[in-house]
């Protein structure tokens, strides 16, 4: 963990180093992924069967075995504990309500020249959702990726999830059921991405693929981009907590560790004007680590990437936060809304002393798929906008064309595009 | 030009081939571009001077010479013909008005659990605009790329444009002035993209880069993606014209050629239920080509990629159009709004017999930067949304956390993320 103070000489260099710190190195798997995609394109479902046997340590009897049946989904759902089922229902309902509220309205304008201009939103026809298997098979991630697509009106949501040794997490299936997933396939890795992008006999192609994955999945998404849309490739998670003196240091410490426990590359940063709180939080982190099941991961993240930054005041905290453009931001201060108004760049903000980021991971309603690694400067969290596209339209009659057409002719001729100019001039009687 | 008819056997195979037709091959320039980016990162402005001398055939005296001065912009503006100045003003005003109308509203919801949820839109801090030099230096493209950024509220818009032999197109400078560009640099190619993404002493880095360019520029954008946002890489342009019997064949022919004259890879497709119109348009295309300055390009595009598709009715025309998902779509029919309602996938639509696509290229108001190559299935034209990002936020007090916190604890524990669960449980007094 680094300790910085804006009052000390050398702060600017140390902070700049923190900003540029690379927390992740990605393996080069381009060639391996290209080969897998080529194999799926060439051999379709037969390739999926072979690749699943090779990578997921189970041999599907036939193509039909790749598809999870309705009965399997119902059985998985019936098996989960009532408390968890209630939690999933609460989460799904709240996520759906917030994403429905995001739905934009169409535009239609008639102007003084007599043209009508419009912009129409429409849902994608089909979306693919990748869900990692193994340790990162999170039901919350299924809800967060699929529900915005359903809220946007996407009629077909196909999910691929690897089933190591053939097994699937019942909670993941139960989440998929609640999120409106329409098809589930036991397929993982680059082969799943290839199948979703190009289609096989068993899996119809989709228009966009979302969801997290390992280096092979990320590279496969890069390679199919253009054929289909993809979401952004997420980097390791991060949180900035801005906290004043009035906080319980243990609360702040656990919030920092909740981010750190994701993986060793995660980053947790406390920014505070109170030196005593900074010290108390640092001690509380060490104390909490003693009883945390994922202490090895969280401790490594905290030691390698954690930081405590002492500032003169909250204005300085806001300025540093804007340079960090964090994925998650907790504002544990007296007037969190006033502080939020000074923040230009953050993926998601959590206001108040009773609003830990974990409520946003699960049940608050806004999405937990958020821009990482300072990309909140220009990128946004997942939303219904990821599953909608726009068509603009223009309607003109002869009078409207007479009003604005001559300008189009002049510009077309200036750009040397004679047919452009002529297409307008002809209709003006020229 | 291909002639297809839905009534003929073999149509499905021929149409499928049309859908999969690759109209462009891109040169592999990865290594050359990576070297240029590395040079700009290592040597900054000195690299920009060297690379400009090497690629643009002029030697800037010093770094200051790379920046276009206010006086140069004013001189360029003063030199353009009054008719063109009026056309630029009309275009800029209409584009600005349409893009301002797109601006979305923030969201704030209080729910029955006592939480307040919000989504706030904010403009990017700085945007880079690449403008190609030479034959494709289009003032309309400057307006279309920069005005949405200004309408979104972006305070800094830095433009890079190569100046072969040191010269710039006055119309491009005049367009930049009207579009709210705040800085103009005489720098082209991958070196311009590198400078915008990483910054040099003379050019501050931006957060997103937009604008068309050659293969080097496109590859440079790919390589800096992640560091900054980029727009999508545009492919060759295309139009689908749906026209009924009541049209003047010459109008339709010129509209098809207006697309074809862009470049040899462009694609123009007529879909009509009227065989006589199909024949007449095909003849009119040949006639128009005889007097078109860019006949060599337009003719090559028409022969290689053009198509006339005869359909039984407009319902069939809509269904084929949805599979083509064209960049531009003209609806030259009696009831264009009714037909538009059946179109799910198109970048921009032009309704009526007096609405050639060229009005949209220049003056109508909606953007002419649009998704190509069937990507309108999932992608949209440039808009204010490209220059905005969202921050979601959640506000909770103790009572609100008590209402939804237990579900977050249950899900955190189910996912094995103990610190997540603990961060909520602690505040519930657990």
TrEMBL record, chains A, B:
- Pathway the protein takes part in: Amino-acid biosynthesis; L-histidine biosynthesis; L-histidine from 5-phospho-alpha-D-ribose 1-diphosphate: step 9/9
Active site, per annotation = 327-328
Q: How is the cofactor bound?
A: Binds 1 zinc ion per subunit.
For whether the record's keyword set contains Transcription regulation, the answer is no
List of residues binding NAD(+): 130, 191, 214
Q: Name one Pfam family in it.
A: Histidinol_dh
Give the protein family. Belongs to the histidinol dehydrogenase family.
Tell me the GO molecular function terms.
histidinol dehydrogenase activity; NAD binding; zinc ion binding
Essential cofactor(s): Zn(2+)
Q: Which residues bind Zn(2+)?
A: 259, 262, 361, 420
Q: What does this protein do?
A: Catalyzes the sequential NAD-dependent oxidations of L-histidinol to L-histidinaldehyde and then to L-histidine.
Which reaction is catalysed here? Answer: L-histidinol + 2 NAD(+) + H2O = L-histidine + 2 NADH + 3 H(+)
| SUPFAM superfamilies the UniProt entry points to | ALDH-like
Q: Which UniProt keywords apply?
A: Amino-acid biosynthesis, Histidine biosynthesis, Metal-binding, NAD, Oxidoreductase, Zinc
> What gene is it encoded by?
hisD
Which intervals of the chain form a coiled coil? none
The protein's Enzyme Commission number: 1.1.1.23
One Gene Ontology BP term is: L-histidine biosynthetic process
Official protein name in the record: Histidinol dehydrogenase
Which amino acids does the record list as binding substrate?
A: 237, 259, 262, 328, 361, 415, 420
**Record's GO cellular component, any one?**
cytosol
The protein's superkingdom reads Bacteria
Q: Is-annotated flag, keyword Nuclease? A: no
């Amino acid at each position: 963990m680094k300790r910085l103070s804006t009052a000390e000489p050398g702060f600017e260099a140390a902070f700049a180093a923190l900003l540029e710190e690379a927390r992740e190195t990605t393996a080069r798997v381009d060639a391996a992924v290209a080969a897998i995609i080529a194999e799926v394109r060439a051999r379709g479902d037969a390739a999926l069967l072979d690749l699943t046997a090779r990578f997921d340590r189970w041999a599907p009897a036939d193509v039909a075995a790749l598809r999870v049946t309705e009965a399997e989904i119902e059985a998985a759902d019936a098996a989960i504990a009532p408390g968890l089922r209630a939690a999933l229902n609460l989460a799904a309902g709240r996520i759906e309500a917030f994403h429905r509220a995001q739905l934009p309205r169409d535009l239609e304008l008639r102007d003084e020249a007599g043209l009508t201009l419009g912009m129409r939103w429409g849902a994608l026809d089909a979306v693919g959702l990748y869900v990692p298997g193994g340790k990162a098979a999170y039901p919350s991630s299924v809800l967060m990726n699929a529900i915005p697509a359903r809220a946007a009106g996407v009629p077909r949501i196909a999910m691929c999830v690897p089933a190591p040794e053939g097994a699937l997490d019942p909670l993941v299936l139960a989440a998929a059921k609640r999120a409106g997933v329409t098809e589930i396939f036991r397929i993982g890795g680059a082969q799943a991405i290839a199948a979703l992008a190009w289609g096989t006999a068993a899996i119809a192609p989709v228009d966009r693929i979302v969801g997290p994955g390992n280096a092979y999945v990320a590279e496969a998404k890069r390679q199919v981009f253009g054929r289909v849309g993809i979401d952004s490739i997420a980097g390791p998670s991060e949180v900035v907590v801005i906290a004043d003196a009035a906080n319980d240091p243990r609360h702040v410490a656990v919030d920092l560790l909740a981010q750190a426990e994701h993986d060793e590359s995660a980053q947790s940063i406390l920014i505070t004007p109170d030196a005593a709180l900074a010290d108390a939080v640092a001690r509380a982190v060490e104390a909490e680590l003693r009883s945390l099941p994922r202490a090895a991961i969280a401790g490594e993240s905290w030691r390698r990437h954690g930081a405590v930054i002492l500032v003169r005041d909250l204005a300085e905290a806001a300025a540093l936060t804007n340079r960090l453009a964090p994925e998650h931001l907790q504002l544990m201060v007296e007037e969190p809304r006033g502080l939020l108004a000074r923040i230009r760049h953050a993926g998601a903000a959590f206001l108040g002393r009773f609003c830990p980021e974990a409520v946003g991971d699960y049940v608050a309603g806004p999405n937990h798929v958020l821009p990482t690694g300072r990309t909140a400067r220009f990128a946004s969290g997942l939303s219904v906008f990821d599953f909608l596209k726009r068509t603009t339209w223009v309607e003109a009659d002869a009078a409207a064309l007479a009003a604005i057409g001559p300008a189009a002719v002049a510009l077309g001729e200036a750009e040397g595009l004679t047919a452009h100019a002529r297409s307008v001039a002809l209709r003006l009687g020229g």
